[in-house]
Amino acid sequence: MAVCSECGYVEDMALTGHQQDPQACPRCGSTSTRDTGNHLPIVELTRVTAAVRRDEALISDRSDERRQVWFGIVPAVDVDPAEVAEQWYVKGYDFGVKYLRRMTLRWLNLGEQSAFGQKRRIAGTDTVAPLFRVCTGCGCRDQAARSNSRSEHRPWCPYRSSSDEHVEEIALSRTLRTQGAVIPLPVSVTTGDPFAIPSLSAALKLGLREQFGGAPDHIGVAEVPDPLGPDDGTRDALLLYDTVPGGTGYLAELTDPARVHDLIYRAWRKVAECPCRDEERLACHRCLLPLASGREIDRVSRQAAERHLRAILTAGRLDEPSAEGRWDVTVERPTINRSLSPLELRFAELYRSLLEELNGTVQLVPGTWGNTIRANVGPRRWTLEPQVNVLGSKPDFVLRSDDTNVPPVAVFTDGLAFHASVDINRLADDAGKRSALVEAGYLVLSVTAADVSTEEERREQGRETVTPPAWFNEQLAGAISNEGGFQTGDFAMVAGGPFDFLRRWIRAPYPGAQRKMADHLPMMLALSGAATQGQVPAGQDPVEQARRIVQGGAPGLGVGETVPAWWWHTGPLVVLSRVIGDEMVEVVSMVDDRPTSVGVAGFPDAWRDWLTIANGLQGRGWPTTITTLERVRSSAHVADAPSAPRPTIRVEVFTSDWQTVLDDALDDERSLAAELAHAGLRAPDATGDEVGDTGIPAMFVWAAEHVAVLSDLVAEDVDDLRTQGWTVVGPEAAGITAALGGSAADRTDNEGEETH
Ligand SMILES: [Zn+2]
Ligand SMILES: [Zn+2]
Ligand SMILES: [Zn+2]
Known about the structure:
By secondary structure, the chain is α+β, with helices and mostly antiparallel strands. Helices cover 30% and strands 23% of the residues. A hairpin with a 2-residue loop joins strand 22 and strand 23.
C-alpha cells in the first residue's frame, strides 16, 4: 500500500495497478505516494492485540510545526470528496464542517518506540517507523534479527526449521468504516501554538458533553490533516468520528451551523468560567483535563481553549461571543493563503526557532492574548509577551530581560497591507507611537512581512545570513565600525534585519554598541555613493529640508552659514544627514506617505527601507528624526501660529545621561524630563535627591549651577534654600531653562521653526 505522507490517503497498489508508478495523492497532491519509503505492506488486524493501543502514541515536543509520534500509531483518515454529504464554512474565515457519510479511518501501527528506527512521514505526522518483522510463512513476530528459532513460528510454518529467515516488514492497521465530521481549524488559530490543537480537541469533547448531557461515548476525536485537493495540500483539522462501525447518524447534526455554534459556545462558556482561571495551572479536572488525551496533557490549556474558541465563535473578530450569535455561512470552501496567517504568529514562531538555535530552554505560558515565551539563554532570562499596553500604544510584543541593564524591546509586526496602503495609512500614527516608546527608553523594532518571509526562507534553505539591503556595503561596514569603535556585527540591525538583530541582542544585549552603530549609520549612506553630497543652510530646520527633497526639490537655498550634508533620495524616501557641531551628524528620515504616493510601485520597498533605517537609528545619541511627510504637513498647520509650541514630531533620542534620568523618572516627572532633554539642557546631576541643610526633596538638581526643581514651591522651603544660595524653580521648562542661564540656546536654534 502507498500511504500519503501529508494526508490520510492510502492507495492499494495491487488494486489500482499503480504498483510500478503510483500517481500523486488524489486528495492533497503530495507526490510522496511515489516514494518507496511510503510503500508499506499493511496487515489488517481483525482483533486488537496488546501491542496495538493507540493511546500509546507519544506526542513529543514540537519540531517545526510537525507532530512527532515516537510510538508510531498514526490515525489516517481518507477524506474522499465523493463521500462529503454536506459542508459549510464561515464566510471569510477558514472554519467549518465537512460531513462524511462514509469514511475510512485507519490506525496505523508502525512499530515499537525506538530512537533508531527509520523515520517516515505518514499522514501528516513525522514518526519513527521501524515496522514489525514477521515470518512470511506464519505471520509470527521475529524476535531476534539474523537468527531463526522454532519458537518464533506456528507449528505448521514451513520455515520453522529453516536455517534462513523468511521475514517481511509490515505495518499493522486497525480500520473503522464509519461516519465522520472534519472540522478544519483556522490557520490563525493553529500557527505556532502547540497548545491550540490539543486544547481544542479536549474543548470539542467538552462541548459535546455539555450539549449531549453526558459523555457521548460513541464519538471519538482525532487530530488529522484535512486534504484540500490535488493543488492545495492540507491543513490542520479535528475529526469527530462515530465509533460504531457504519455510524449512528449522530454526526449528521453537525451539518447545521447553529448546532455547531451551540456546541462551541457551550464549550467556551465552560472554559471561560472555570474556577481554575484564577489558579496557576493550565487546566483542571472541572474543565479540560478529564477530556485530554494522556500524552498531550501538558499541551491542554484552558486559556488557549478560551482564546481560540472565542476567535472561532466570532470569526476572528474576538468580540464577546453570545449564545444567539450566528455565523454567516457559505458552502464554498474559502481559499487559504498561508502567508495570510497573522504576521505576529509567524514572528513568534521564528523567535522560538531563534531561541532553539541559541540553545535556549524555552517555556510557553498561555495567556489571554497569546503565549508568553520565556527562555533562559546563557546567563539571562528573557520574556516575550504579546499585546502589552505601554505608554498608550500596544506593541505586538515586548521583549524583556531579567538583566536590568538591558532596555526592553517593543516589537511591531507591520504588514504592509495593514499599515501602509491607500486605504489604511497609519504611517504617521506609527511614527508617533514609536516616539513615545523611544522617549521612555524602549528599543523599537519594526518587523515587516518581508522580514518574516525572508527569515522563513533563510531557515528553510539553511543559510547563515540574509541578503543585506542594497545600500549596505560590507567593506564600508568594516571601515565605519573601526572608525566608530564598534564591531562590524553591530550592523546586524540593518544588515541582517530584525531577526539577526535579535539573535545578537539575546547573546549580547549591549545598548552601547547599538548606539555607536546608530550614530555612525549615516556614514554608510555617505560613503557608499548612494547619497548626493552638498551643503545646506545651517540655520534651517532639517525636517523642512528633507520635506523639500522628498517632494522633488532642492534642500533649500539659505542665507548665511552652510554645513556639509548628504541625502539619499530614492522614490518616496529621503534620508538627510548633516554635520552639526564638530563631530555630530544629525539625521532626518522621511517617507512620502501621501495617498498619491502610497499606491505607487516603489512604495513597499521605500517603506521597508524607512523601517529598516528607523530600526538602525535606534538608541542614537545624536539628533535624529524619523517621520513621514503627512505627519510634517499636518503639524505645519499648528506651527503656523508663532506662539504655538513646536509639535513633537521627532523620534528624539536622548544622550545617555538623559536616558538615565528618564529611566529613573516617576511618571509625572518623565514628560518634563523629556521636554528638558529635547530643549538640549544638560542632564541634572541628581533626581529625587534631598537638598539643603534640612533635606528638602527635589525633583531635579543641577549641583554646579545650584539649581533645584521642587514639585511644590512651599514658601518655607523655597526661602530656606534661597538663603543657602540655591536657585529654586517649579516643575516647568521655561523657568528651569532660565535658571540654568539659557544654556539650551544653541540646540534650540538648530530645531527652530524660523527660516532665515
Ligand atoms: Zn495526500
Ligand atoms: Zn513462520
Ligand atoms: Zn478548569
